[in-house]
């Protein structure tokens, strides 16, 4: 009997604290645990008793990398509860700030967290010694995303300008136009990024996933749409709880989400791409095809290319919005709270982020439920490892460990996010 | 040549945003690493250089027994220990549990409370070990982060003023939102550092940087009260990311009783 274990106590280049434990006996994998031990912070509990107006600022603090996603899902849920619909330029500005977040978050992952795996470096700083131009391009591209978030949101991390009903202050046409030159450069840099990531070496690893993402009749999804999958799911966001449940497993402080009756599913750039390729801008579609991608991609290692395609799309979309922008008369719509339950689901950089709030007549939150993308991907990440490790079992431990880490990083897991979630349903046996 | 100082970045309970601020210094990052060895920074690198470290930046608050022990070890291997952000300096938003029974929180959130290990309170790093410097903010300002690193490299005192957000508004010429529009604003009692972003976006300051030195919170509350805010709203204003700092905690508790029919959270859980 030859038994060995692979242990990574602190996974690097992921956001938050996670660990991996793999046990192998006689060249057979007998146990895999992707552990999330980031300490719980209980957001859903302390949101109770807070005013609806506070939800965007409080939930932003769940994640320093994708605060806009939390702000967007919370404001949409509140507006759903109060029967308000944001459209026109205010809606466009929300898409625009989301473009900024996708750019900064995706580029952070592509260049600084994921690419070093493919090129054999411990981090982007070491990589910069041999590839200074590439790392510089990544940093400047990330900065373009951050600049867009800061212009609309006041600052890059935990922006202050998003509110239920719209914004505190909206930019003038000139203020937005000041971003155009930078974004045109960013679009070219994103195009180069797609070409560059497509030259990396990818393990041959395709799985038959159930991809879940929003789908909107007219656009690549950010804030709105129906929840669809490649296996026939097509529901309103209001029905989320009827189709997905969260399980509490011992080795993780993040709840595992499963699709009822079907099990694990996959959210994030790869899911969006597979379900919405036709809604990408012509430039993004053309670029994807030019590097050999089709409208289907089932290899999670290639998510680095897909993220780059989404960065290209986000630059393109941001430029389109800026071009057509007219300053709205009011920065926000009037809100009248009422007794209601509101649902919101938007596309965070890492995938769908679901919020549900029950509100009383004074606008006080009675209960809250938040399901972040990483808790939805957790089970799929473990499943990938169950498939991936046997194919590479002959590798020495250090190399196998590295490959497993890379397989986890395919999902850009945000462990800080995942941990804080929680559910309100008490399991009774 | 002088040896390059070794920098470590540690994470406790937090959103990762403050350590991300370092990676958000896109223009400066590569020059910073010319002067400093990033010896431990898991969010960015799988390379780990063993301690001791010249500077440790600590993000996050202590919420588990394991973390309470870990911070002691980190202190021992750190020459200078700097806490960054509201979680590390004040316990963060997760310190809202300190006003409640954490067991109730666990069962609200997790189906199997027995799997969850957590302490009753979320506490700042300085409640556990000696801290050499505290950088405030939720999130910290990346300019201030560069300032403390640069101050360390040049052996000088960091320039991070402890006056109020009000002063920052005056400096940048922002019209006072409280005087001109009657918008409640924590600017008069909040520590500077963000450059008064909120008033420049037509909203009141909501206290991300915690209390300034010697804040007169009760006078500000009186002003809020006169302008029509009820006790519950005033309590909530002081009870966010820096709720467990002494001045904000006390002020929020003074408004906790509330008037009849107010939205006291515990009556609603």
SSE layout and pairings?
The complex is a heterodimer of chains A (429) and B (269).
Chain A: E1 3-8, E2 18-25, E3 28-36, H1 43-46, H2 55-60, H3 67-82, H4 88-119, H5 124-130, H6 132-153, E4 162-163, E5 166-167, H7 173-177, H8 180-198, E6 212-215, E7 226-229, E8 234-235, H9 240-243, E9 244-247, E10 256-259, H10 269-276, H11 282-290, H12 303-323, E11 340-348, E12 351-359, E13 365-371, H13 373-391, H14 397-409, H15 415-419
Antiparallel strand pairs in A: 1-2, 2-3, 4-5, 6-7, 7-8, 9-10, 11-12, 12-13
Chain B: E1 6-11, H1 17-23, H2 29-35, E2 37-41, E3 53-59, H3 65-76, E4 78-84, H4 86-90, H5 102-109, E5 133-135, H6 142-153, H7 165-172, H8 177-181, H9 197-200, H10 217-226, H11 231-238, H12 246-254
Parallel strand pairs in B: 1-2, 1-3, 3-4, 4-5
Would you summarize the structure shown here?
Chain A has helices at residues 43-46, 55-60, 67-82, 88-119, 124-130, 132-153, 173-177, 180-198, 240-243, 269-276, 282-290, 303-323, 373-391, 397-409, 415-419; strands spanning 3-8, 18-25, 28-36, 162-163, 166-167, 212-215, 226-229, 234-235, 244-247, 256-259, 340-348, 351-359, 365-371.
Classify the fold: give the CATH topology of the largest domain in chain B.
Answer: Rossmann fold
Q: Largest interface: which pair? A: A-B, 77 and 69 residues
Mean model confidence by pLDDT of chain A: 92
Low-confidence stretches of chain A: 420-429
Radius of gyration of chain B: 20 Å
Strand order in space, largest sheet of chain B:
2-1-3-4-5
- Counted up, domains of chain A total 1
Characterize the largest beta sheet of chain A: strand count, sense, and whether it forms a barrel: 3 strands, antiparallel
């Amino acid at each position: 009997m030859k038994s060995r274990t692979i242990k990574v106590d602190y996974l690097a280049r992921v956001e938050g604290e996670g660990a991996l434990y793999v046990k192998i006996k006689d060249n057979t994998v007998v146990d895999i645990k992707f552990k999330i031990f980031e300490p719980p912070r209980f957001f859903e509990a302390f949101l109770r008793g807070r005013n609806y107006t506070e939800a965007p600022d409080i939930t932003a603090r769940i994640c320093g990398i994708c605060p806009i996603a939390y702000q967007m899902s919370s404001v949409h849920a509140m507006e759903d509860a109060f029967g308000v619909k944001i459209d026109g330029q205010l809606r466009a500005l929300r898409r625009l700030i989301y473009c900024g977040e996708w750019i900064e978050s995706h580029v952070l992952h592509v260049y600084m967290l994921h690419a070093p795996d493919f090129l054999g470096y411990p981090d982007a700083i070491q990589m910069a010694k041999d590839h200074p131009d590439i790392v510089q391009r990544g940093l400047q591209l990330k900065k373009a995303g951050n600049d867009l978030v800061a212009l609309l949101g006041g600052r890059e991390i935990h922006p202050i300008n998003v509110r239920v009903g719209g914004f505190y202050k909206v930019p003038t046409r000139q203020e937005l136009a000041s971003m155009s030159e930078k974004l045109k450069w960013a679009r070219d840099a994103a195009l180069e990024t797609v070409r560059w990531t497509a030259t990396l070496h990818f393990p041959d690893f395709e799985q038959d996933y159930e991809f879940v993402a929003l789908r909107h009749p007219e656009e690549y999804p950010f804030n709105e749409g129906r929840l669809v999958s490649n296996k026939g799911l097509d529901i309103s966001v209001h029905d989320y709880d009827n189709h997905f449940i969260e399980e509490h497993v011992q080795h993780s402080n993040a709840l595992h989400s499963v699709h009822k009756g079907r099990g694990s599913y996959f959210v994030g750039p790869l899911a969006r791409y597979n379900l919405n390729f036709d809604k990408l801008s012509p430039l993004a579609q053309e670029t994807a095809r030019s590097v050999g991608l089709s409208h289907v991609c089932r290899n999670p290692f290639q998510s680095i290319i897909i993220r780059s395609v989404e960065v290209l799309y986000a630059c393109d979309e941001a430029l389109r919005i800026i071009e057509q922008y007219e300053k709205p008369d009011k920065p926000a719509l009037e809100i009248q709270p009422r007794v209601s339950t509101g649902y919101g689901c938007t596309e965070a950089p890492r995938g769908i982020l679901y919020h549900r709030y029950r509100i009383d007549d004074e606008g006080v939150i009675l209960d809250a439920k938040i399901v972040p993308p990483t808790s939805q991907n957790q089970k799929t990440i473990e499943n990938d490892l169950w498939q991936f490790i046997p194919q590479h079992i002959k590798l020495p431990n250090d190399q196998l460990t590295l490959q497993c880490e890379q397989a986890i990083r395919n999902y850009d897991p945000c462990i800080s996010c995942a941990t804080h979630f929680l559910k309100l349903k008490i399991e009774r046996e | 040549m002088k040896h390059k100082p070794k920098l470590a970045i540690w994470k406790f309970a937090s959103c990762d945003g403050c350590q991300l601020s370092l990676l958000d210094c896109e223009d400066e990052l590569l020059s910073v690493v010319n002067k400093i060895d990033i010896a431990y920074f898991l969010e960015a690198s799988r390379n780990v250089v063993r301690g001791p470290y010249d500077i440790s930046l600590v993000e996050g608050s202590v919420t588990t027994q394991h973390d309470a022990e870990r911070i002691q070890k980190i202190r021992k291997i750190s020459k200078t220990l700097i806490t960054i952000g509201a979680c590390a300096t004040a316990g963060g938003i997760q310190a809202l549990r300190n006003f409640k029974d954490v067991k109730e929180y666990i069962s609200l959130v997790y189906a199997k409370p027995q799997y969850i290990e957590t302490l009753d309170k979320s506490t700042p790093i300085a409640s556990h070990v000696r801290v050499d410097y505290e950088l405030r903010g939720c999130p910290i300002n990346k300019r201030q982060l560069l300032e403390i690193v640069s101050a360390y490299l040049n052996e000088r005192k960091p320039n991070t003023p402890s006056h109020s957000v009000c002063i920052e508004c005056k400096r940048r010429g922002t019209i006072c939102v409280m005087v001109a529009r009657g918008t409640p604003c924590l600017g008069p009692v909040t520590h500077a550092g963000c450059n008064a972003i909120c008033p420049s976006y037509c909203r009141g300051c909501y206290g991300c940087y915690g209390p300034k030195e010697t804040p007169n919170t009760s006078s500000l509350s009186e002003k809020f009260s006169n302008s029509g805010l009820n006790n519950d709203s005033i309590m909530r204003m002081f009870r966010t990311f820096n709720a467990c700092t002494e001045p904000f905690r006390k002020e929020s508790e003074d408004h906790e009783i509330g008037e009849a029919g107010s939205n006291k959270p515990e009556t609603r859980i």
